[in-house]
Structure formats: C-alpha cells, structure tokens
Design a protein that fits this description.
The complex is a heterodimer of chains A (about 260) and B (about 260). Chain A is about 35% helix and about 25% strand. Chain A is of the alpha/beta class and about 260 residues long. In chain A, strands 6-7-8-3-9-10 form a six-stranded mixed β-sheet, with helices on both faces. In chain A, strands 2-1-4-5 form a four-stranded antiparallel β-sheet, with helices on one face. Helices cover about 85% and strands about 0% of the residues of chain B. Chain B starts with a helix and ends with a helix. Classes of the chains: A alpha/beta (about 260), B mainly alpha (about 260).
Amino acid sequence: MIRIENISKKFRKLQVLDNISAIFQKGQVVSLIGPNGSGKTTLIKSILGMVKPDNGKIFVNDQLINGDPSYRENIGYMPQIGRYPDNMKIGQLFKMLQNIRGIHEEKLDKYLLNQFELEKIFDKPMRTLSGGTRQKVSAALAFFFDPSILILDEPTAGLDPLASEILKEKIVQEKKKNKLILITSHILSDLDEFTTHIMYMQEGKMQFFKDLETLQEETGELRIGKAISRIMKGEKFTNEWIDKILEIKKDENIY
Amino acid sequence: MMKLSKYVLYDILRSKIILAYTLFLFIVSISMFQMEDNNSKAILSLLNIVLIVLPLVSLIFTTIHYYNSYEFIELMSSQPMSRTRILLSEFAGVSISLLSGFFIGIGIPVLLFAANDAGLALLFTGAALTLVFISIAFFASVLSRDKARGIGFVLLLWFYFTLIYDGLILLVIFNMSDYPLEKATLFLVSLNPIDTGRIFVTLKMDISALMGVTSALYKDFFGSNTGILFTIGIMLLWTVVPLWLTVRRFQKKDL
C-alpha cells in the first residue's frame, strides 16, 4: 500500500533521512521506533507530502506522490503536536473537514468522538484546550473518515491512561479491518498489543525492518521493549548483523 | 475552492480588524468630502491615503494573517487538498475581505460625492493596489518561517515602494536632466505600482495641466485607452507574478 523508494532528505547540513526504502502492506501495524531526531516524523511527513524529500519516490496505493493530493483521502493522520486554528471551535473543525472531504454523515467513524466525549465540548474554541484534549481531537480526527491507512505520530503521548486505553482498543479494532497502520511511539509497552512489524531508525538510516516474530526469535524476548533494548545494547548489534538482516529482507522482498 | 475560502473569510471576519479598517476608511473619506468644498481636492487627499495606507495595511494584515493561519495551512495540507488550492483560497479570503473593506470605506463615499472619472480611477487604483500588495505580502511570508522577519521584510518593501523608489527616480531624473527622459521615466514608473497608480489618478484630474511638459506626454499616454490598458496590465502583472512565485515556492516548502 505504501512503497518508499530510496528517499533522502537534508535539512541544511543535517541528513534527516538517508536512503530509506520500505514497503508497508495492508493488515500490517508497523511501529516506527528510534531515538529522538532519528527521522521518524520526517518520514511520516514525507508520506503525507508535507515534507518534500530531496530524492526518491513514494507510492501510496501505486500512486506516485507528486502533487496530486487525492491519495490523502485514504489517509488518516494524527500529528505529534496537534496544531489547529485558534479561533475555530471543535465542532466547526470536524464540520469543516467533513465538508471539505465531502463525506456523508453515515460513513463517518464517530467511535472516538463518543468515547472521548468530545461532542459535549463542541463549542469550545481550540485555543482553550489542554494538550491532552487536543490530542484527543487529533485522534478522533484521524479515525473520523474511516481511512484505509492510519498514520499515528506518538498517539498516546499526553493522553490520560483511560483515553490511552480507548485509543489502543480502537487501534486493535482497526487492525482487524485489515488496514495499514503506522505508529511511532517511545512508549514501547504500548506497542506490544498490536504491532506486527517493527522499523528501527537511527540518524536517518533504517537499521532494520522486520516482523515481530522474527525479532522475538532472534532476541529471545517477547516484549518489544526488551527486544529493542537488547538489540541497542547488545553484542549482536554490529554492522554485519544489520547487513545480514537487510540481505534476508531483500531476498524475500516484496520488490 | 470557495469552500476553503469561506473558512478563511470566516476566520478573518471574527477578528474584527477588517471592521475597524472599513470604519476608519469610511470616516476619513466622509470627513474629506465634508471638509473640502471642492470634490477633486478631496479626491486628491484620498489619493494619498490610498497610496500610503492601503499598501501598508494590505502588507501587514496579509503577513500577520499568513503566520496566524499557519496551523490551518498545516492541517489542510494533511488533507486531500493541493497546496495550490490552499494558498489560492487564502489569497481569495484575504482579498475579498480587504477589498470589501475598501469598497465600503472609500467606494461608497466616492460614488456618493464624486462619481466622475477621477473618482473611478481612484477606486480602480485602490482595488488594484490592495491586490498587488496582498500578493507581494504572501510572497514575502512564504519566504521566511519567522514571523518577525516576515513582517520586517514587508515593512522594508513598503518603505521601498512608497519612499525609497521615488527618491531613486528623482536622483536619476536630476542627474540626467540633459537627456530626454520622458519614455525612460514612464518605464521606471511602471516598475512601481504605487507610482503607476498615482500618475493614473492625477492625470484624470484638472491639476495635471500644472505639471509641465512631462505631464503633457503622460496625459497623452495615460489619458488614452492604451494608457488605461497599460495601467491595468501593470497592476495585473504586479499581482500575478508575485502570486505565481508564491505558489511555486509554497509547493516546494516543507511544512
């Protein structure tokens, strides 16, 4: 569904993305993991067309991203920091996006809207909202149009435990509908419940991209957090090791 | 496109700055017409307002609006919406609001008190200058991410067009007074929309006879249909070229 071919991006001198290639398929829940500043958000924004890569191509549903915005109809995006027009009220925001996308009332997914009880505060202006409520709005918006691709950038950061549970529950439900879900998070324990694939990035490079079973087998750890920390600290983490992983990936690959 | 402009417009009208601007223009023009017993004198005073205040307000208002609606632009760019459409909607929203402010504030009084050639020329010049400077302001704001820099740049542009450029022209004319400069100055004037507007309006008034030989040539030129077409063309160029540059730049920009 999403095919990324050799994309690179430099902000001034800083190489944020370094020749990244990957394929994400339907039904996968891909966790993008990596330290701060490793390029996760930039990668996501490149898929959304908000950041223009210096070179390389991105295809969404076999459509090359080059200015035609229609592919974004299939994408629900929850940004890391939801920034919205200050004067707009929550209700207006949802109405406006519905109006712009031209989607009928009955096709909307209002599950999160109801669960987060956002409809009660529909006439509150966005500027008065707390960080957590903003995050709830972002989440509800991402799922609102029932898109086939969900891109969630740090979805649970800033949410209270209850809301966080609701959101994770929702992600599991959407996964069952055979959607592609891309998630970045630093709270690795949150990812355990639904992740099928893990993509590890560091300094703009993709260190590995593999499914959860392989990772669990190789590290002998069931939990993502432990597996990753073992890899990060571990004796196994050498260049040869990465090369080997990538080689295997290339063979069985999807190209 | 209008869908999006509607929201931009709504956002602008909420802030009531446009209302204050309209009221200010209305009071100024009514009092001009009341104070001066001769209507063309009032037009002349209004011309100075149009040539100085209108560009300034258009530049500053547009720049501030652009930076304030950055969140909105960001949000829209993650939706199925092309960058060109987002930017042109912003342009349309700002233009509609500033133009209606101008037409209500100055247009109505002028049509009431001095609906002659000079009055109409003044209205055309005002409307054209508004569009020109909105367009220039968008270009300046797209260039820089920093609000203070954007506004500073726009203020510099205003100084350039209203003060510095005239000084430069005078310098050229003064130093080269031995040569026939009529055609050359005509060209130089067209490089500044404010000067073009000033000459276009003054030549519709009787006082132009007092301005000597050069003005006789201008009167010939600007008084004719070619002159009107020339002025419209210059104003159109000054609107379209910066806008086109803005769109091009905006499409490549990382949000």
